[in-house]
Structures are given as structure tokens and as C-alpha cells.
Amino acid sequence: MANLKIAKDWLGLANTDLIGAKALADLGENFFALATFHAQQAAEKAMKGYLVFNSIRVPKSHDIGDLLALIQLKDEELSELLKPCQNLTDYAVAYRYPDAQKEPLTHQAVREAIQQAEMALTESITRIK
Fold first, then answer.
1. How far apart are the C-alpha atoms of 10 and 29, rounded to whole Å?
2. What is the pLDDT of residues 29-73, one digit of tens each?
3. Who contacts 42 (Cβ-Cβ below 8 Å, separation ≥6)?
């Protein structure tokens, strides 16, 4: 029962990040980096909620690939489904610091990041219920 409470806490934080990502994306390109950061955070927290629920120790990592490897131990189908979310890992850091800037973010890239985060949250919630 404690795992369910902690998992719900993770999922609640993921949902807040997802809402924030959508709101920031709507503010325009000056906010795209923040939007993708929050999309990454939403996916990461959703996956960590799934892991906690399944009694798998959550690493202190922002690497989506690391989380997918742990998810695969419990649910190969979910791990495969969420594989595209690995692209979100770069958004945890790369676009937050000026010396790590990459290609300019496009509206399409932001939209895809949000869709991937939304899928991670939806699929995690579905499997926890």
C-alpha cells in the first residue's frame, strides 16, 4: 500500500510537469527549452512512479534509457512502447545551459516531447491501476 501512495505522488508530480510543459509551449519559442525540460521531467517522474509501484529501486538519474532498462525487468512491452521517450533525456540538461546549447528547438520538437511525456504518464497510470 505504501508503494501505491509513493507511486501516486510521483505521478502527481509528473502530471504537474506535463501541465507546465503545455503551458510553456503555448507561450512561444522563448519558452521552448523550459517546455521540453518539463516534458522530460514528466516522463521521468511517470516512469519512476511505475518503478516504485513495482518495488524497483528508483535511481537518481535523468537518463530515460536507464529507467527503461529497469522497466524492462518488469514489463518488456511497456519498455518497448516508451522507447521513443529516450529522446527526452537531452532535454534534462542540454537546453538549460547556454554552453550546452544544441540545435534551436522547433515547435514540432516541443510538440513531440510533450506527446512522448503524455504517453509515458498515461501508460504508467494505466499499468498501476
1. 28
2. 999 999 999 999 999 999 999 999 999 999 898 999 999 999 999
3. 14, 15, 17, 18, 21, 117, 118, 120, 121
Amino acid at residue number 34: L
Please report which helix (H) or strand (E) contains residue 73, including its range.
helix 64-74
Sorted by where each begins, the domain ranges of the chain are 2-128
Fold of 2-128: Four Helix Bundle (Hemerythrin (Met), subunit A) (1.20.120)
What is the chain's length?
129
> Residues 84-124: pLDDT tens digits?
999 999 999 887 777 766 788 999 999 999 999 999 999 99
Helices 32-53 and 64-74, packing angle to 10 deg: 30
Phi, psi of 14 (to 5 degrees): -60, -45
Q: Tell me the pTM.
A: 0.94
